[in-house]
Automatic annotation (TrEMBL):
The gene is garK. Keywords: Kinase, Transferase. This is Glycerate kinase. The keyword Transferase applies. InterPro entries: Glyc_kinase_flavodox-like_fold, Glycerate_kinase, Glycerate_kinase_RE-like, Glycerate_kinase_sf. GO terms for molecular function: kinase activity. Belongs to the glycerate kinase type-1 family. Coiled coil: none annotated. It comes from Shewanella saliphila.
């Protein structure tokens, strides 16, 4: 008998691997001798690097890069412990590690100034380490520069009408006149870049990067208008370039507005492909191979609710397990409104782990214990069903 345990992290409490360990511990109280396969999961957002490193036996690489406001920050990325289907070494980078909103205090948030330069430095470090496949997770960014800082860090020259390098930040895009990619990092053309993106916003307009995501990064109404115009100008300059490195017309594609327009930048300038984050993760950690001969799959995340079915980890795991008719049970820190939607998609049961009303701080502290107890109870019930067969 084989059980696959493939959960996401419980945010602010347990990593995906710690969640998997706790579930395994609970199940072993009832089934001590069966096969357990732990596959830490993520959906492309926070925790993706750690989950994928844990799932593949990889390593974390730490390095100092340029933060959102130009100051040095300590960042990281992961190198996976297995090569991809084409035998390429793979790195996983979370944009937020270098350019995240959490790196800027609420009083300093200003997307006119913030830059994605540090993301480019992480990519360059990975390339220098021989990486040929990069998975980039978008989300949680403090920037609205459409990846201009990133491409500058990789060697591109972005100049104004006088031939001078433009400044960093979203507002400076309005001064752009020319882009020269000839000095781009020499290894970038040999690297496959996949981007985990779960939004479909275009670059500009009422659903664009500035209008939808700018305010949470500190943008006022006037700043949103200024940033939107700057992004439109950036796209126009790119589209009139005569360069084999550039892909034209990306500003209208779904996901172009993700992470302050980073989706546009990576598509137009790095030939990247955008895919749902959980699809990239499930493929990379080879979840299908683990599930095809399983008897049961356990998944979960900190909160199961009506949004879970829209690309969150439990839904991604469920979709994979359904290919092989393997039943799936979900475990969550708590259940929110609309959580039953995932039952309608085929999950067999969902369980919250909180045994009683408690302050949030206590809930987070006791998450591992509560998770193990819940898993043990699920295993006990499942054993009853097996005994009836």
């Amino acid at each position: 008998m084989k059980i696959v345990i493939a959960p996401d992290s419980f945010k602010e409490s347990l990593s995906a691997l710690e969640v998997a360990n706790a579930i395994e511990q609970g199940f072993k109280q009832v089934f001590p001798n069966i096969e357990y396969c732990k596959v830490p999961m993520a959906d492309g957002g926070e925790g993706t690097v750690q989950a994928m490193v844990d799932a593949t036996g990889g390593q974390i690489v730490e390095c100092q890069v340029t933060g959102p406001l130009g100051e040095p920050v300590e960042a990281f990325y992961g190198i996976l412990g297995q090569t991809d289907a084409n035998s390429r070494r793979t790195a996983v980078i979370e944009m937020a590690a270098a350019s995240g909103l959490h790196l800027v205090s609420t009083t300093q948030r200003n997307p006119l100034l913030t830059t994605s330069y540090g993301v480019g430095e992480l990519i360059a470090d990975a390339l220098n380490n021989g990486i040929k496949h990069i998975i980039l997770g978008l989300g949680g960014s403090a920037t609205n520069d459409a990846g201009a800082g990133m491409i500058q860090a990789l060697g591109a020259k972005l100049t104004d009408v006088n031939g001078r390098n433009i400044a960093l930040g979203g507002a400076a895009l309005a001064t752009l006149h020319n882009i020269d990619l000839e000095l781009l990092h020499p290894c970038i053309s040999e690297c496959k870049i996949e981007v985990a993106c779960d939004v479909d916003n275009p670059l500009c307009g009422p659903r664009g990067a500035s209008a939808i995501f700018g305010p949470q990064k500190g943008a006022t109404h006037l700043m949103v208008e200024q940033l939107d115009q700057a992004l439109a100008h950036f796209a126009n300059v790119i589209n009139r370039q005569d360069s084999p490195y550039i892909k034209l017309g990306c500003e209208h594609q779904a996901g172009a507005g993700a992470a302050g327009g980073m989706g546009f930048g990576v598509m137009a300038l790095l030939a990247a492909t955008l895919k749902p984050g959980v699809d990239i993760v499930t493929e990379t950690v080879q979840l299908a191979q683990h599930c095809q001969d399983a008897d049961l799959v356990i998944t979960g995340e900190g909160r199961l609710d009506g949004q879970t079915v829209f690309g969150k980890t439990p839904m991604g795991v469920l979709n994979v397990a359904k290919r092989y008719n393997v039943p799936v049970i979900g475990i969550a820190g708590c259940l929110g409104d609309g959580a039953d939607a995932i039952l309608e998609q085929g999950m067999k049961a969902i369980f919250p782990i909180i045994p009683s009303l408690q302050p949030l701080e206590q809930v987070l502290i006791e998450a591992q214990t509560n998770l193990t107890h819940t898993a043990q109870n699920i295993a006990a019930v499942w054993s009853l069903s097996l005994n009836r067969i």
